[in-house]
Each structure stands twice: as C-alpha cells, then as structure tokens.
Amino acid sequence: MLQNLKKPEGDTARSSASTAVPPGGPMLGIRTAGPQLRPGAPGAPSIIGPDLLITGNLFSKGEVQVEGEVQGDIHSTHVVVGERARITGGVIADEVVVRGHVAGSVRGKRVLLQTSSHVEGDIYHQTLAIEQGAFFEGKSRRTDDPTAGIIRPDQQRGSAEAQASAAEAGSRDTSLG
Predict the structure, then answer these.
(1) Distances from the Cα of 39 to the Cαs of 20, 21, 70, 116, 126, in angstroms?
(2) H/E stretch holding 120
(3) What is the mean pLDDT of the chain?
(4) pLDDT tens digit sequence for 129-138
(5) Which of 28, 66, 93, 121 is the right S-S partner for 48, CB 3.0 to 4.6 Å?
(6) Which tens digits make up the pLDDT trace of 109-122?
C-alpha cells in the first residue's frame, strides 16, 4: 500500500526548505515545482497516446505529438508524428516531423521525413528533408508560404458567416434580374 510519508521529528528544520518533492524522490504523475513559464513561451507538447483514436480535426497553438491514430486534419505550430502513429488527413504546421504513417497532404515551412516515415500525399513546403529509407508517394511543391490561404478551425466560424452573408447577398442579386 502507501508508504508512511511522515517525517522524523529531527527533520523539521530541513523539511521547510524543500516541500515540493516527497521523500524517496518525485512520484510519477506529480510535477515538481519549477520555474514558471514566460507568457508566450512554448509549453509541454500535447500528446496523442498510442492507445488513442481521434476522429475529427485537431487545432493547437503549440506542439502536438501523435503516437496514436488521428482520422482528420491537424493544425498546429509544430507536429511530430511518432513511428507507430497513423494520420488519415492533412497536417498543417510550421514544422512537421514525420516518423510514422500519413495518408494526406502535409503543409509546413519545414518538413522532415525520417527513415521510418510513410507518406502518401502531396507535400507543400519551404524546406524539405527526406532521410534515406523514408517512403514518399506524392508531389513535392516548394512554396514561399505553404500555410497561406489555409483556413484554420478557429477562423472558420468568421469566414463561414461571411460566406453565408455573401451567398445570401448573391442570391438576392440574381433574383432581381
């Protein structure tokens, strides 16, 4: 069961200085006190575990590490596709590192296909590196801004409303003539 975490009475002077770490070292799943992150500084990556299947699009303002399966598009600043990961959909990020399987387009300023990667789809990039042994079937297109013109999920709401009002205005114009 659980160990008795009571400290000997002689250790009270020392214990007041260090209360963040329990005796015997840090426990799994408990974060020890550390320096605070600066506002805007990159945080810990969001991890899609190997036993997780996600159906739908993902949007993150930080790093996403995929070890499981995603059936949908991934929009992020940095995406890492693990060796056993499977993505069926597009990957859109500033930096994309592929070690696993992607069936869909990849759009990134910097794209790296590592040895274990398997990509079936087009890659739009500023820089592309393909390691020996990587599998890539599709077209490679170099462009100055591969993520330009892509509507992110957080921007879709405003553009959908604008498209609806434009369509409504267009339908009124055609009914006049």
Answers:
(1) 23, 26, 30, 36, 29
(2) strand 118-120
(3) 77
(4) 999 999 999 9
(5) 66
(6) 999 999 999 999 99
Residue with tokens 């200085």: 17
Cα four-point dihedral sign 146, 148, 153, 156: negative
Q: What is the dihedral of CA 46, 57, 90, 41, to 10 degrees?
A: -30
Q: What angle do CA 141, 91, 87 make, to 5 degrees?
A: 120
Nearest to 75 by CA among 45, 102, 108: 108
**First-to-last C-alpha distance (Å) of the chain:** 82
Nearest to 76 by CA among 43, 52, 100: 43
For 156, the token pair is 């879709």
